[in-house]
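User: two proteins, same treatment. go.

Assistant:
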Amino acid sequence: MRKTWLAVAAWLCVAAAAHADQSVPKVEVQGTAQDRDEKSYRAMLAGMDVFERNHGLAPTASLRFRVFPRHAGVSMDGLVLQIAGDRTGIPVPLAADGTFTLPRNAAAASADAMVRFNRKAGSLAWRADIRSRDVPPAARRLGDLLLECRVAMAGDLVAYVHHPINMLIAKMDDPCRTMPINLFYFADRPVFSATLVAGNRRRILPAALLHGPVAPLMPDHEDWIFLRERVFMVKFKSLYDEGWSDDTLLQFDYMDDDT
């Protein structure tokens, strides 16, 4: 009789656990937690806080994040995204273009959760994606790009070697504008040329700021090489020192444009 009651009790425990699991939405991600492409949820929340504090740079824009393939063979089909912790599994909707927004969840932040994809570590390049209204499709706005840089620095979305000098730069008040750093941006399509436009003022972006360095310093740590034809850089310090405003547009001519 005692064995019978033990069996019944065990069955009730399993049934209760199954019922509890049905009330909490979960996303299954294949592979081990140590080998998934992920970022710290707390760090990305810090990037969201930076966006709110600096919203004046792009007052008509909202903040989204975006991921790109970092290597050949990385499939963007079937991506699954979640905020994952020891007791957390919050699904995050992902748009077809690889963009997403993050909800704020105090419990996940306090539990040091991760923003996690169902891809191996190092598969994806992560960026902030900030787009003001009324910007032409083949252009980007300087204030939007500067704010993307600030969010990326705060949210640990910049791929760099964790050297003490780089860590020190990342902790500065405004490294994007005060330091001559380069953040590799991705245009929507392969870039032939880019032109700064502010009213009647125009300047073609130097070719050296397109497609990245010819010889990357540390290829294993770079996240832009696979999308080299779409890469462009912006030297914010020199541009703002020369009087280019937040509303300056960077207009692209794409490689696949009609002649």
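Protein 2:
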Amino acid sequence: MNPQSISVIGAGGWGSALAQLLSGHGLPVTIWAHDPAQVEEINKSHTNRQFLPGVTLHSGITATADMTLAAHGDLIVVVPPSQFLKGVSEQLSRAGVKPGVPLVCCTKGLEHHTGRLMTQVLGAFFPDNPVAALSGPNHAEEVARGTPAAAVVAADDHKLADQLREFFCTGNFRAYSCDDVAGVELGGALKNIYAIAAGISDGLGLGDNAKSALVTRSLAELIRLGTKLGGKPETFYGLSGLGDLIVTCFSVHSRNRGLGERLGKGESLAEIQKSMVMVAEGVPTARSAYGEARKLGLDTPLLDTVHAVLFDNLSPRDGLMRLLARDPKRECEPAA
């Protein structure tokens, strides 16, 4: 793999940060945005103040609202919010991506009703292109500023995964590779649900002991659900599972943790979402994962509680009491 140009589909914070990261190769980077005003700002000012404030984008990054122009990259990084991925993928497929060009899916989530992984949603439109997934404990703000970070890139093709690993290793960003696409995607998607729970804990003022216990049990539940959905257990102890869970549950940058904190302080979901510029992916993922857990008959008390707080008007305080009232268990047993 020796790309001469790179396209990034999606100009949110993460898409812009990845464009900034990959511009370190000195190759032309085209970033697609649906908003012409955002395109103009990136091209004229080299900024994306709404989604990546305080960052000056590399001069080699060019924005466009024309998907046909963005589709011509030799490597295409796909980063729209999960609920828009299907529509964006269809638009990209019509724009004429060259056969064989790798697509790297960096969107985190599960498709509602079907439970499909984001690579499956994307790949359905590109039967002639390899599709990989990249995930890890990465906040866009820090990656864009070049602070040290790491991620894992997964593909069914070992050789492609290793090639992408080498390509994403640039500056202070370190990449690892594996072949567990499902595990990498599920770790990155499911952790957002538990970050909402961690934020609720913060909003309720429950303290460090409670939050540490919550995050630990979240990992156990994430692994239980993730393995049933097709991931390998060892993957969830890596960057896209445990690593991403830690950063998302504790960071001030985390939109999902922040949303949960506001829920814990008494705001409604509708109020919070109305005020947010970027999408908190844990909300749609909680709905999708809850449906999948019910189909599988799994015991997922934390997911169930977050889902009830988000969609069934359960108060955060009552959700806490419901969890504390559960029967004691042996920690080494599968059930939480």
